[in-house]
Amino acid sequence: MSAKRALVLWSIAGLLSTACGSDDGGEPMATVDMGTQQSVDSSRPTPMREKPWTTGLVERGNTGHQPSLSTAPNGTVATAYFHTQGETEEPCTEVGEASVPNKKRWTIRYAELTGTMWQPTTAHRPLLLGTPVGLSLRFDPDSTPHIATMTGEPLEMLRYCGANDVGLLTPGPDEWDLETVVMESNEAMSGQPASDFGSVVGYWSGLAFDNDGQPAIAYRDVHGGGLQGDDLTRADMEFAWKRNGSWANFAVDVGEGAGDFNQVVFDQDNHPVILYSNPVEQQSADKIGLWVARSTDQGESWAKFRLFEGKTGERPSMVVHPITGDIIVAFYHPEEGRPYLATWRAGGEFSQWALEPLGDPRYIEGQHPTVAIDQNGVLGVTWYRCLRVGQGTTCDPQDDAIIFAWYIDDEWVIEIIDDGEMGLCGRYPNLTFGGDNRPVVVYQCAARRGDDFEFELRYARRKELR
User: Phi/psi at 19 (nearest 5 deg)?
Assistant: First the structure.
């Protein structure tokens, strides 16, 4: 092992163990031009004549966990994300006097891109148990940002000292306003007593606006939040959709553990489509894997299809093609160590999805993939590269990077956006196309600060693809 690799792996081990969940996976930063380009089948990267990417800093200070990136109708690009560590507060006396835990709040930051600078502000500080389980930033038709995430105060009845509602945040005059969308498990009635019990909802809230500009959120319902041993194994994936001024609630996938990494889009016919993972291996049913669900009757019934059988990495991605109406999903295949695209052709049977592997076979890569489409219909995908094949199971700072792939002239072109310096770099990439049609990516890197490393959120912006 090289001296650099030994030093880096030793130095960042403590940082990763305290700042990341099971999936893990300040001052202005000078911008630098980076980027190499290669075809999927090439044996070595070929330097580009003109490096297209410029990188910079969104925010440093142990931040950038689970970022969500979005572009507004007016062209504004913004991101929301968690700090990597929570802040411990006073004892949680609301849940009783015996063995009272301390409250722990996690800061959600919101930042808009203006020119080459970001202006981060605090949007919310939810009270969470364990590490965060997702947020989702989207803009409404008036270009107002909305953030869906878990919110809420302790539940005395359940002795639960953590967020337990589905919340929707919007900017107010002085601070962000909070709308509580769902509070109880039985708001999405399933007719099954075990699934309609409980008050802990909101895991992995995924937000979208329908074609009429109304918000909708998919979320995981975990009932008692661990009060009972089967709260997670019989979790439900549920859906809240605002129509005619009020929220309607639907139980989509009931009693089997579903609802991780939820993403929502609306197809060209304004039918909701939900992408979600079921991480639970049931003895009575084979449901583990990555699923898509679609309703053509306003949420009353759902067609479901499993795209991948087995556990997959954190936060796959989904987009509707603005020209063809096709639905495209990007996800990580952990057994093959590569990203995949799944495509449903608009108008076809919902069970007909075409799968396509991506990536460089020399690497274990594809975690945290994001797919987006530019104004000309060009498809782009980003993902995290971990390490070379055969070099172990721990991501290596010498080999890891953030990758961008785009499809042109019937072939994929791969570009390395950022391969970091001494620390792991490229985690949680999110891709969008700005109002100027240029690709923008945010991603988390571990940067050297004296003798230690800390996480920071970086961004990269490319020249237009065409």
Answer: -100, -10
